[in-house]
């Protein structure tokens, strides 16, 4: 054929980097002398040899795919060469990374083995605007003017907690921008909101000018002048009220005849033999109700003197649950064997952060 005119410059990329192989007639030929075909790209810029795991000599350790020298790992594996396996199932990993709005790491982070790495938006790297276990907190939402270098959080009249402004007394609004006309002093207001409870609005509401608005807004189960009644306490983890054998009155179950227990879960009559009942109350170590309760009709009733003992076999200690303001799970969730299971809208290890909808 005709002689090939060489245009070496064609082998240069726009950014001036040059063919990583040999330039032949304006075409970049990649060096694949070993026949592996692992070096490719218009300028031979992709080198999939970088994906080979030294130990197994497999691409991405056999647990992922390689694109242009980078490994993309299958669920349950991570590391530059997908060499590390998670010690939890992909399902559990996903569960731990799911934010309150149902998205993985709030769509603002990467989930690796149940832990979110948030895409930080602060280029200085000092303090990320996005944080939280599931990247659910975005401090940018607190800024009156969104300017990365201004510290104008909550208009200077409040504190930013997980992207929400908690306004100082005398101010209100999403960014604490409105002054409030209240004739009560801050102390009087708090006193009115506290009543005989331990905390203003029982830790379940917002105190404004001596009046409580209970969380979550519009949920009829939390009510009372100081939000002292919380009918969610009558529900088990599946949401059944008083076990279906009673009614709830201001957060306490009133059981029908023939039933008893905090959640009316125990029948007074039992059609089991003592033997059958005992078998059901024995934990794996053969001890009846872990030695911390009595057995009734195949269910453990944990000792009332030690209020913190709970669990199917009285094997849990509620003191292991995180506290906030001296309250276990801040009163906004159920302590389930050492971990707080927060009610809708609440988040944080001790269910202390309200992430639900704004006030109506």
From TrEMBL:
An example Gene Ontology biological process: cell migration
UniProt-listed PANTHER family: INTEGRIN BETA SUBUNIT, INTEGRIN BETA-PS
Coiled-coil segments on the chain, per record: none
UniProt-listed Pfam families: EGF_2
One term under GO cellular component: cell surface
Protein name in the entry: Integrin beta-like protein 1
EGF-like domain: residues covered: 50-83, 96-136, 141-177, 233-265
Top-rank lineage group of the source organism: Eukaryota
Location in the cell: Secreted
Keyword Oxidoreductase in annotation: no
A molecular-function term among this protein's GO annotations: integrin binding
Biological source species: Pan paniscus (Pygmy chimpanzee)
Entry-linked InterPro entries: EGF (IPR000742), EGF_extracell (IPR013111), Integrin_bsu (IPR015812), Integrin_I-EGF_CS (IPR057243)
Record's keyword terms, sorted: Disulfide bond, EGF-like domain, Glycoprotein, Repeat, Secreted, Signal
């Amino acid at each position: 054929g005709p002689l090939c005119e060489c245009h070496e410059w064609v082998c240069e990329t726009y950014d001036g980097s040059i063919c990583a192989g040999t330039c032949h007639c304006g075409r970049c030929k990649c060096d694949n002398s070993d026949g592996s075909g692992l070096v490719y790209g218009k300028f031979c810029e992709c080198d999939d040899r970088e994906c080979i795991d030294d130990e197994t000599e497999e691409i991405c350790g056999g647990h992922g795919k390689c694109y242009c020298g980078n490994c993309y790992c299958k669920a349950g594996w991570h590391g530059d060469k997908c060499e590390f396996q998670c010690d939890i199932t992909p399902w559990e990993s996903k569960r731990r990374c799911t934010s309150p709005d149902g998205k993985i790491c709030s769509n603002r982070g990467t989930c690796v083995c149940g832990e979110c790495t948030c895409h930080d938006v602060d280029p200085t790297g000092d303090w990320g605007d996005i944080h939280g276990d599931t990247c659910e907190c975005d401090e940018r939402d607190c800024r009156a003017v969104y300017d990365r270098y201004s510290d104008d959080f909550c208009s200077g009249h409040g504190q930013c907690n997980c992207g929400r402004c908690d306004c100082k007394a005398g101010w209100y609004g999403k960014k604490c921008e409105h002054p409030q006309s209240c004739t009560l002093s801050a102390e009087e207001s708090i006193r009115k909101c506290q009543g005989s409870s331990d905390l203003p609005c029982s830790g379940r509401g917002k105190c404004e000018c001596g009046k409580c608005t209970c969380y979550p807004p519009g949920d009829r189960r939390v009510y009372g002048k100081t939000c002292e009644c919380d009918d969610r306490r009558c529900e088990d983890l599946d949401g059944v009220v008083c076990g279906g054998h009673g009614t709830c009155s201001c957060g306490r179950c009133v059981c029908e005849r023939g039933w008893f227990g905090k959640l009316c879960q125990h029948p007074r009559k039992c059609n089991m033999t003592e033997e059958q009942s005992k078998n059901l109350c024995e934990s794996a170590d053969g001890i009846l109700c872990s030695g911390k309760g009595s057995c009734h009709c195949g269910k453990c009733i944990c000792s009332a003197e030690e209020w913190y003992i709970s669990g199917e076999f009285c094997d849990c200690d509620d003191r292991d649950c995180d506290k906030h303001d001296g309250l276990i799970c801040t009163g906004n969730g159920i302590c389930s064997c050492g971990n707080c299971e927060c009610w809708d809208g609440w988040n944080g290890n001790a269910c202390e952060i309200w992430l639900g909808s704004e006030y109506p």
